[in-house]
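Predict fold of Allophanate hydrolase subunit 2; 323 aa.
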Amino acid sequence: MAVKVISPGLSTTVQDLGRPGYYHLGIPLSGGMDRFSLRAANMLVGNDEGAAVLEAVFLGPELEFTAPATVAVTGGDLPPKVNGEERSGWEAFPVKAGDRLSFGFLKSGARIYIAVSGGIDVPLKLGSRSTYTLGALGGHEGRALQAGDELPIGASAAAGGGSVPSNLRRQPGNPAELRMLPGLYWHRITADAGRRFFADTWKVAPEADRIGYRFRGGTPLDFVPRKQPFGAGSNPSNIVDACYPYGSIQVPGGTEPIVLHRDAVSGGGYMMVGTVISADMDLIGQLQPHMPARFVEVTMEQALAARADRAAALQRVRAHLGR
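Predicted 3D structure, encoded as tokens:
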């Protein structure tokens, strides 16, 4: 079985749960920007939660199926249609050979996850089917989909079905609250700058993609005076090159925070004020440009509790679907 790409949508790529273990070599994790939605889509069609799916941004693709399958679309509210007839998101539905899946207009969120029973069966690269476009690695020929592509589908192992009610889904609020731990370089900004950073409401900038999300509209940071370190740039936001964790918040020039995401670079010379906690990284993947967001300081204990809460939320979806 295969899925034919009639039109690719916008930046539609094959993604799974990513490629851990190579970040120290400069190869990022990649994988779904919103892992909760990716897992839920796979559960709905009876796949392993980490099976490869399609991730589309703002605009869905048009796909044609060559054999019967079960499909589910999760993530943002971008209504799926089968042969022009609307289906519900977060719900499994059947398709027949020759059916075409298309999408309406985006109502909320930013990314959708299209799971097909059996999973997108592109070759594993370094243990993952995820696409890392900057490195032309993984996915379908290392790139976003194009019209005329044909994607192989694996054998279905289990029956899918059911739906995920809205109270079991995770979506960002308005404004989105992104919890973060202040980082090693927090001491580089003044106490007033730190208070304003958390008090301000920022907005997602148009420069927001799988590498990083830029925010603007807040108060520029004031830095504590220093003697320029050997090897660091002259701007007070420069440091001697260091490693970047996922979710780290760098502020080039002290003006616009950038949260590094799944396809992040692994190091560089900008100081990081902190790191968005893992539990909230999914939420960033559903933010559209110009959406308001606030950074909220948490402790390590609160971050770990949030991670446990997210795991519990996934478990509730499994229990609801009987997985």
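The chain has two domains: 2-168, 176-311.
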